[in-house]
Design brief:
Blueprint: E1 2-8, E2 13-23, E3 30-39, E4 47-54, E5 59-62, E6 71-73, H1 80-109, H2 115-126, H3 135-154, H4 165-179, H5 190-195, H6 201-211
Antiparallel strand pairs: 1-2, 2-3, 3-4, 4-5, 4-6
Helix pairs in contact: 1-4, 2-3, 3-4, 4-6
Protein backbone atom coordinates (compact mmCIF):
# COMPACT_ATOMS: atom_id res chain seq x y z
CA UNK A 1 0.00 0.00 0.00
CA UNK A 2 1.49 3.39 -0.99
CA UNK A 3 1.73 5.66 2.03
CA UNK A 4 2.90 8.71 0.08
CA UNK A 5 3.94 10.00 -3.33
CA UNK A 6 6.07 13.04 -3.90
CA UNK A 7 9.01 14.81 -5.46
CA UNK A 8 12.21 16.33 -4.14
CA UNK A 9 15.06 18.57 -5.30
CA UNK A 10 12.68 20.79 -7.23
CA UNK A 11 11.10 17.85 -9.01
CA UNK A 12 14.36 16.29 -10.20
CA UNK A 13 13.59 13.16 -8.19
CA UNK A 14 10.21 11.48 -7.65
CA UNK A 15 9.44 8.83 -5.07
CA UNK A 16 6.77 6.53 -3.70
CA UNK A 17 6.67 5.14 -0.16
CA UNK A 18 5.16 1.72 0.53
CA UNK A 19 4.61 0.55 4.10
CA UNK A 20 5.68 -2.99 4.98
CA UNK A 21 4.77 -5.00 8.11
CA UNK A 22 5.88 -3.58 11.46
CA UNK A 23 8.62 -5.13 13.59
CA UNK A 24 7.59 -5.80 17.20
CA UNK A 25 9.72 -4.29 19.95
CA UNK A 26 9.31 -3.45 23.66
CA UNK A 27 9.38 0.29 22.94
CA UNK A 28 6.40 0.61 20.63
CA UNK A 29 7.52 -1.20 17.51
CA UNK A 30 9.30 -0.29 14.30
CA UNK A 31 7.69 0.64 11.04
CA UNK A 32 9.41 -0.56 7.89
CA UNK A 33 9.05 1.21 4.56
CA UNK A 34 10.09 0.71 0.97
CA UNK A 35 10.96 3.94 -0.85
CA UNK A 36 11.08 3.61 -4.63
CA UNK A 37 12.73 6.60 -6.31
CA UNK A 38 13.78 7.74 -9.77
CA UNK A 39 15.33 10.87 -11.24
CA UNK A 40 14.32 12.98 -14.24
CA UNK A 41 17.81 14.41 -14.73
CA UNK A 42 19.77 11.18 -15.12
CA UNK A 43 21.55 11.63 -11.80
CA UNK A 44 20.39 8.26 -10.44
CA UNK A 45 18.75 5.04 -11.54
CA UNK A 46 15.51 3.60 -10.22
CA UNK A 47 16.18 2.30 -6.72
CA UNK A 48 14.35 0.72 -3.81
CA UNK A 49 15.52 1.86 -0.37
CA UNK A 50 14.46 0.16 2.86
CA UNK A 51 13.93 2.36 5.92
CA UNK A 52 13.05 1.60 9.54
CA UNK A 53 11.16 4.14 11.66
CA UNK A 54 10.92 3.85 15.44
CA UNK A 55 7.33 4.79 16.20
CA UNK A 56 8.09 6.09 19.72
CA UNK A 57 9.94 9.10 18.33
CA UNK A 58 9.87 8.69 14.53
CA UNK A 59 13.63 8.17 14.40
CA UNK A 60 14.52 7.16 10.87
CA UNK A 61 17.02 4.32 11.17
CA UNK A 62 18.55 3.85 7.73
CA UNK A 63 20.88 0.90 7.10
CA UNK A 64 21.03 0.20 10.83
CA UNK A 65 21.75 -3.45 10.15
CA UNK A 66 25.19 -4.50 8.98
CA UNK A 67 24.45 -7.57 6.85
CA UNK A 68 21.76 -6.68 4.30
CA UNK A 69 22.03 -3.82 1.82
CA UNK A 70 19.45 -1.11 2.39
CA UNK A 71 19.20 -0.11 -1.28
CA UNK A 72 18.47 -2.25 -4.32
CA UNK A 73 19.02 -0.85 -7.82
CA UNK A 74 16.21 -1.64 -10.28
CA UNK A 75 17.04 -2.14 -13.96
CA UNK A 76 14.90 -0.74 -16.75
CA UNK A 77 13.43 -3.85 -18.34
CA UNK A 78 11.34 -4.55 -21.42
CA UNK A 79 9.76 -7.95 -20.81
CA UNK A 80 7.34 -9.12 -18.15
CA UNK A 81 9.68 -11.91 -17.09
CA UNK A 82 12.52 -9.46 -16.49
CA UNK A 83 10.21 -7.16 -14.54
CA UNK A 84 9.16 -10.08 -12.35
CA UNK A 85 12.82 -10.88 -11.74
CA UNK A 86 13.42 -7.30 -10.60
CA UNK A 87 10.36 -7.45 -8.33
CA UNK A 88 11.62 -10.68 -6.78
CA UNK A 89 15.00 -9.04 -6.17
CA UNK A 90 13.35 -6.14 -4.33
CA UNK A 91 11.16 -8.47 -2.24
CA UNK A 92 14.19 -10.60 -1.34
CA UNK A 93 16.06 -7.45 -0.33
CA UNK A 94 13.14 -6.33 1.84
CA UNK A 95 13.04 -9.71 3.59
CA UNK A 96 16.78 -9.65 4.30
CA UNK A 97 16.57 -6.07 5.53
CA UNK A 98 13.77 -6.83 8.02
CA UNK A 99 15.52 -9.97 9.26
CA UNK A 100 18.83 -8.15 9.68
CA UNK A 101 17.24 -5.19 11.46
CA UNK A 102 15.28 -7.47 13.82
CA UNK A 103 18.41 -9.46 14.66
CA UNK A 104 20.42 -6.32 15.35
CA UNK A 105 17.65 -4.75 17.47
CA UNK A 106 17.49 -7.88 19.66
CA UNK A 107 21.27 -7.84 20.07
CA UNK A 108 21.28 -4.17 21.07
CA UNK A 109 18.36 -4.66 23.47
CA UNK A 110 20.32 -7.41 25.22
CA UNK A 111 23.50 -5.34 25.51
CA UNK A 112 23.59 -3.37 28.81
CA UNK A 113 24.85 0.21 28.48
CA UNK A 114 24.45 1.97 31.87
CA UNK A 115 24.04 5.74 31.67
CA UNK A 116 27.52 6.49 33.01
CA UNK A 117 29.03 4.17 30.41
CA UNK A 118 26.91 5.74 27.67
CA UNK A 119 28.03 9.23 28.68
CA UNK A 120 31.68 8.16 28.65
CA UNK A 121 31.23 6.65 25.17
CA UNK A 122 29.76 9.94 23.94
CA UNK A 123 32.46 12.17 25.40
CA UNK A 124 35.52 10.03 24.66
CA UNK A 125 34.68 7.92 21.60
CA UNK A 126 31.65 9.16 19.69
CA UNK A 127 32.22 12.93 20.08
CA UNK A 128 35.76 13.47 21.39
CA UNK A 129 37.08 16.99 21.75
CA UNK A 130 39.14 18.25 18.79
CA UNK A 131 42.89 17.75 18.93
CA UNK A 132 43.73 21.24 17.74
CA UNK A 133 43.91 24.16 20.18
CA UNK A 134 40.77 25.91 18.96
CA UNK A 135 38.57 27.40 21.65
CA UNK A 136 35.52 27.77 19.40
CA UNK A 137 35.74 24.21 18.07
CA UNK A 138 36.12 22.88 21.61
CA UNK A 139 33.14 24.92 22.83
CA UNK A 140 30.98 23.60 19.97
CA UNK A 141 32.09 20.03 20.65
CA UNK A 142 31.22 20.33 24.35
CA UNK A 143 27.79 21.74 23.41
CA UNK A 144 27.11 18.77 21.13
CA UNK A 145 28.26 16.36 23.82
CA UNK A 146 25.96 17.96 26.39
CA UNK A 147 22.99 17.93 24.01
CA UNK A 148 23.41 14.23 23.34
CA UNK A 149 24.01 13.32 26.99
CA UNK A 150 20.83 15.20 27.91
CA UNK A 151 18.88 13.25 25.27
CA UNK A 152 20.34 9.96 26.51
CA UNK A 153 19.49 10.68 30.15
CA UNK A 154 16.19 12.53 29.88
CA UNK A 155 14.29 11.79 26.67
CA UNK A 156 10.92 10.22 27.57
CA UNK A 157 11.08 8.32 24.27
CA UNK A 158 13.76 6.10 25.78
CA UNK A 159 12.02 5.21 29.05
CA UNK A 160 11.45 1.55 28.11
CA UNK A 161 14.92 0.95 26.68
CA UNK A 162 17.28 3.20 28.63
CA UNK A 163 20.47 1.52 29.84
CA UNK A 164 20.59 -0.73 26.77
CA UNK A 165 22.51 -0.59 23.53
CA UNK A 166 19.22 -0.04 21.70
CA UNK A 167 18.49 2.95 23.93
CA UNK A 168 21.97 4.36 23.32
CA UNK A 169 21.71 4.06 19.53
CA UNK A 170 18.24 5.61 19.54
CA UNK A 171 19.41 8.48 21.75
CA UNK A 172 22.03 9.23 19.10
CA UNK A 173 19.42 8.90 16.32
CA UNK A 174 16.99 11.20 18.16
CA UNK A 175 19.66 13.83 18.75
CA UNK A 176 20.83 13.56 15.15
CA UNK A 177 17.33 13.78 13.69
CA UNK A 178 15.40 16.05 16.04
CA UNK A 179 17.00 17.60 19.13
CA UNK A 180 20.50 18.84 18.26
CA UNK A 181 21.10 22.50 17.50
CA UNK A 182 22.50 21.43 14.11
CA UNK A 183 19.04 20.28 12.92
CA UNK A 184 17.69 23.76 12.23
CA UNK A 185 20.69 24.57 10.03
CA UNK A 186 20.11 21.68 7.64
CA UNK A 187 19.42 22.54 4.03
CA UNK A 188 17.96 19.16 3.03
CA UNK A 189 14.64 17.84 4.31
CA UNK A 190 14.43 14.23 5.65
CA UNK A 191 13.40 12.71 2.31
CA UNK A 192 16.18 14.53 0.45
CA UNK A 193 18.67 13.30 3.03
CA UNK A 194 17.38 9.76 2.59
CA UNK A 195 17.63 9.94 -1.21
CA UNK A 196 21.18 11.29 -0.88
CA UNK A 197 22.03 8.56 1.65
CA UNK A 198 23.20 11.28 4.03
CA UNK A 199 23.27 11.98 7.74
CA UNK A 200 23.41 8.54 9.38
CA UNK A 201 27.15 8.16 9.93
CA UNK A 202 27.02 9.04 13.62
CA UNK A 203 24.19 6.52 14.21
CA UNK A 204 26.25 3.80 12.57
CA UNK A 205 29.27 4.73 14.69
CA UNK A 206 27.11 4.48 17.81
CA UNK A 207 25.97 1.02 16.73
CA UNK A 208 29.56 -0.08 16.18
CA UNK A 209 30.63 1.26 19.59
CA UNK A 210 27.93 -0.75 21.34
CA UNK A 211 28.81 -3.93 19.48
CA UNK A 212 32.60 -3.54 19.73
Amino acid sequence: EAAALGESFGGRKVWSVVQMPDIDSPDGGLGTFLVVSNSHDGSSSISATFVTVRWACTNGLIALGKEAAHTVKIRHTSTMEMRLDEARKVLAGATRYVEDTTKLMDELLNTPIPLNQGEAMIRHALMPLPDEDNERAERNAIRRQNELVDTLRNSPNLDNVRNTGWGFVNAVAEWNEWTGAHVRRRRLNPMERLLNDAGQDIVHRARDLVLA
